[in-house]
Structures are given as C-alpha cells and as structure tokens.
Amino acid sequence: MRHQLSLKIGPASFRIGSAWREPIELLTKLYADYPQTSDEVSDFTVRLEPTSLLRRWVRPSIFITGDHGLADAAPMSLSHGLLAAEMGMNLQMALGWRRHLLLHASSVEKDGRALVMTGESGSGKSTLAAQLGERGWRLMGDEFALLDLVTGAVFPFPRLVSLKNGAIDVIAGEAPAERMGPLLAGTAKGDIRHLAPRADAVTRMEEGVRPALLLFPRFGHAEAVRLVGQGEVFMRLTQASTNYVALGEAGFGALTRFVQDVPARAIDFPSGEAAIALVERLWEELG
Amino acid sequence: MTAERRYHQDCNAALRELEDITLLYHRASGQTHMVISPVPEILEALGDRPATATEVHARLERRYDLGEPEQVIAEIEAHLAGLVALGVVRGA
Question: Of A84, A86, A46, whose CA–CA distance to A68 is shortest?
Fold first, then answer.
C-alpha cells in the first residue's frame, strides 16, 4: 500500500495500509507513544482502499479490508478515515484473535487488580473507563479485555478510546487537547472523537493483572446496585465474547473460572460523576 | 414387554457448577449447555456405568427423597431422552 504504519497494541501487532495519506498521518500522531514494529511480522493487516479507482480522488470513499472481512461493511467517506482504521483494527481482533478469550468490555487497573465493565453500546462502559483512566486508574482498554487462557489474568488492549456524542465534551473537559483526535461528525454512530490513553497505559500495555470486579454499567437510570448471579454472568459474557466458541474447551475453562472467581454487580447511574463515586465505593468494599 | 432402554454417558463432556446453574461443555460438539437440577444429579448417578431409567432411579433414591417411583422414573426417562437429543448421553 502507498501509505503504511505498523504498530503494537497490547499483545497484537497491526500493519495498517492506506491509499490516502491523511488516515495514516492521524494514526501516527495519536499512536506516537506506541511501539512501532516495521520489521516484524504483523498479526493483522488492515487496508483502507478506494471503493473504485476513481473514488480515490472524486468524493473519496473508503472500503475497509484485511485478513478478516465482513461482506456487508459499508464504505465510509475519507474524512472518517481514522474511524475506518480503528474499526478495521477492532474487526481483525474480534474475528481473528485466538491467544486470549476476548471480552467485549472495558477495563481499568488499580492496586494491581482489574475492574472489568461490559454492556451494550451506550451503556457507558467506555466513557466510564476513559474517565477513570484520567483519574488515577490505569486504562487497560475501552473495547476488548483479553482473558489469559491459562492464568486467568486480564491483559490490556489499550487502543484509542472511541468517544461518542455526549461523552466527547465530558472527556474533552478532563483530558489535554493533544491526546484528543479530530471531531468526526455525522458517522453511522453519531459524532465520534478519539482519545489517546495516558502514557502509563501505553508503557504498561503488556502487564496483565488479576480481575477483581465485574460491572454491568447502565447509564441514564436512577442509582442502583444489583447482585448478578453466576448463571446470568456466564450467559452475558458468552454473548460479550467474540471468540468463546472458536476457543473450545480452553475458552470454557477460562470463562467459568472468571465467573466463579470474580464478583459481579449491575450498576445503574444517572451521571458520570455518580458512576465514578459508585465505582470507587464498590472498589473500596472489596477491601 | 420390550426391554427398558439402557443409557450411558458420553464421557466427552465437562461439568462445571456455578452458584445457581451447572454448565456442561460437550467436547465432541463444542457446545455449552446450561442445566439445572435434576440433570446434574441424573448425570452423576449415571456415571460411567450404563443404566436404565429404573436403575438410575435406584441409584438416586439412595441419596434423595424422590416420591412416587413410577412418576419419577418416567421423569428420569424424559430427561435422559432430552440428554440423548443433546448428544450428552447415548442409548447403549
């Protein structure tokens, strides 16, 4: 490809190629602190290609492709090239990673233990992780938590945090401008702005930790905490994992161990501040 | 009278008990099943010794207060048939 970037995020290495300069320039700036892996073999390749030869110049339209693809991935405009690259990396990871059990969850670390948060898009898990990451916790990832199949430790995958709509102003008020990407307005998921994690999240991205608490956050409701039974946790986590079935018995063993060892709560909260206070209180109660 | 059907466990399954449910991972198919009482008890009673529903009942009766035998044996038979459908138990 004409423009390229190779980098490592957590345990995975990516080679991102693009027919256009802009997306690679943006990625290079936002991933400046991440290890570059130009001479190594990459786990995944992501390619941003024009939908047709003409579309490289005339109203440029991007088609995401790579080692693993989805037939119905819709083309995107060049102004959303950064988002296309991020989506491409997520897609490769979700469809191709086999070394860990992949949970669609955000995770943060404090005191050598991990807090894992999972839920639907819009539940607040990503924003909450980003906020905690700006307030003394180590951000491990906003999209995927990697569960080690042998030790049960959670490993980070700290790619850029994808902030959507209302979350953008919340985080822009806390994080310095140089760690924020450009505003991508009017994408299929609304307005999106990316946040590069703090330096400690990047330098410690190969450090796994023991999971200590699992939360199912739900934004926009009166404050409440509910115990979640192990059967329900197991069912929700199989739905939140993109590779549980592919991993076979190794995945079964890792997930049942996680469910048996890690206490789980569903939390409702009306605002980000309420959520942070609630999380800190639940964390203290763990002792 | 036709002979009672004998069953044996497909030993290719892993059981893991959670607080409120038992998980059954069937290695041959890679499928995970969530089961509740009395299925784990029936599987345990079946163990690695092929048995009819009546024999499974006899093994369970030593440990549990089961009530009217005829009805319970019919229920065990129905559960075993369900487990055969999942591939976890086979007709001997």
Answer: A46
This complex has an ipTM of 0.84
Tens digit of each residue's pLDDT (9 = 90 or more) over A240-266? 999 999 999 999 999 999 999 999 999
Identify which of B14, B18, B20 has the shortest CB distance to residue A249: B14
User: For residue A219, which of A107, A121, A110, A109 has the smallest C-alpha distance?
Assistant: A121
Identify the CATH class of A100-286: alpha beta
- Subunit contact A231:B19, Cβ cutoff 8 A: yes
Nearest chain B Cα distance for residue A252, angstroms: 7
Helix %, strand %, coil % of chain B (to 5): 40, 25, 35
Domain coordinates of chain B in residue numbers?
6-87
Asked if the Cβ–Cβ distance from B34 to A229 is below 8 Å, we say: no
Number of inter-chain CB pairs under 8 A, A vs B: 37
Q: Which residue of A has its CA nearest to B14?
A: A249
pLDDT of residue A160: 96
| Chain centroid offset of residue A30 CA | 15
Q: What is the DSSP letter of A39?
A: T
**pTM (2 decimals)?**
0.90
The reported pLDDT for the residue numbered A73 is 64
3-state SS string over A227-275?
ECCHHHHHHHHHHHECCHHHHCHHHHHHHHHHHHHCCEEEEEECCHHHH
Sorted by where each begins, the domain ranges of chain A are 3-96, 100-286
